[in-house]
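=== RUN LOG ===
request id: a7f3
mode: sequence -> structure
chains: 1
length: 169
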Amino acid sequence: TIGSTYMAASGLIPEPSSSSGPGTREAPLCGRDRWQHLADLTDFALAMKVALMNINYQSFNNFMLRIGMNKGGVLAGVIGAQKPHYDIWGNTVNVASRMESTGQVGNIQVVEETYLVLKDYGFRLVRRGPVFVKGKGELITYLVKGRERQGSFLSGSSVTLPHQVVDNT
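=== RESULT ===
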């Protein structure tokens, strides 16, 4: 059980098999397209922070949010005989969960591998430093603070969100 935690996965693409049946991808995505879904998910996480800030302001509450993200492969499937449901497992999921649980309130925490992708999509990140992660030891982590520039380096087609810093030069 994950209690009050919300988990999302993006970019779930079946690995190509030897047959070319339905659901298989003929050619892998190139580097520029491969992680666009991660940039979109990060924009969503930043927008969630803004939405929660507005909810708190309008309702005189102090709800808090802590977000952990990771990238990589997962195993997925339907489990349960009585109440079947779709689930994902694997190291990527475990590390994302640990990024949330060891994160700082009001921040989005990622590992270095995710940082390297997000910085290429124009996100502003600051190094938090080493954090002890159960089952992994110390991992270098970063906090996502916003966008340096609008959209991705691909096309700039992403919508500007309230948290984004737009450079009009």
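=== NOTES ===
Residues 152-157 have pLDDT under 50 and may be disordered.
The two ends are 48 Å apart (CA to CA).
=== END ===
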